[in-house]
Amino acid sequence: MLTQKGGTLNLTGEFHLESAADKVNASYIFTGGTLNVDADKVFVHQYIPVKDLSRVYFMGSPTLGANPINSGSGYQMRWFENQTDMWHNNGINNMTPGVGYAVYTLNNLLLCGAINTESILVKLYRTDGKGYGWNFLGNPFTSALSWEKLIDANSGIEDYIENNYWLWDPKDAIYNAFNQESGVGIGGADGTIPSNHGFLVKVKIGKTGAELTIPRSAQVENKSNFLKSTSVKPNHLKLRVGNGEYADELAVVFIDEANDGIDKFDTEKRFGDGKNPFEIYTINSSTSLSINTVPYVKNKEVGLGFVARKSGTYTIDLSELNLSGVDVILKDNLASNEINLLKDGPYTFSVNTTGTNNSRFVLKFTDSVITSAKPVELSDDELNLSYLVDNGNLYVSVVDSMIGEKYSLFDISGRVVKSDVLDTAGMVNIGRYPDGVYILTLYSNKGENTISKKIVVK
Length: 458
What we know:
Number of domains: 3
């Protein structure tokens, strides 16, 4: 990452921002000063993982000179018009920063030309009967874009657009999404839009349009799919369904201020292009949602729906859990089965009939009970950090002196998997996690002291 806050940066040679399969895109963040570089010597790289013309990539350009020819694509790039609900070929014209493009390619791409360093103003539309409020934008910067900072810079914009964004996943041919109100995303969406990426926003029902500024103040460093953040996320789970080749994900979030109807904490499900044979969603007030936020009550039930485009065998499992003391029960009404996904998951099932089904599956949430039959693996008593691992569930022994203290659980890459406050004594379930190595850190005396322990979940 290179950040320029002022002064003059003179580059006499080539300026490359690289991208690779095992690394994130390089970041150049310009917030002030002067950049002097020959536009013909600027090369913003974008690695393309699957070079197959059946895959489409949603992209944006941070430069003023990229087009289908000099980018290495060689194929038409298309942009979306809300007013007509149509995709238009861009011809050999240069890509415009702020505009999203559907791109096909058999090569890694180069976005060439002068780097855009200015905020971009885009017009958004809602045309009922046509584009239904969907607008396709592109990240115009050589860095990631913080959705939170973008919204903060557009005072009152939440009255006109949904406080969400959608990203296309070319591997699974689905849309992933992030909801700023709940702070939860699916499919790796974490609140930042990587450089060179296109994204969707939606104008609310009842509004005809809006003007949105994509400000350079919203630039942040390109990172992995998850930020190493210590911010506390609400109680939630993510459910993943797949057949080994394709997968889809949804989230159920519990926030007391939410209601059982549709509100700002919910995110609409946007369906893919049909390549993914199975897409799942939750049902709320007859609306399909990819992120469904509700208040928690014991024995809460949330309906699940799915679109099956191909018969076959599929598997449902918890891909992420940030819930304490709650069992997640999957009810299969067709097979008359109930399975505790925490203790007995994943669940494999068959689909014999294609089409939409909104009645087969239901999620039920019940308060969990720890029994004496659970295996015990306690350690670090002298440090007052005792834990228990059982079937992927991690329990922490909390004594009265620990109540009110904060803890964080990190995975081996350093990502914060969960961060919360201990609010009750006893063996507290802080979640179920995939096999792996984790670091549990307890902050005591308001963070003045820390105790860390390596934990293996298997």
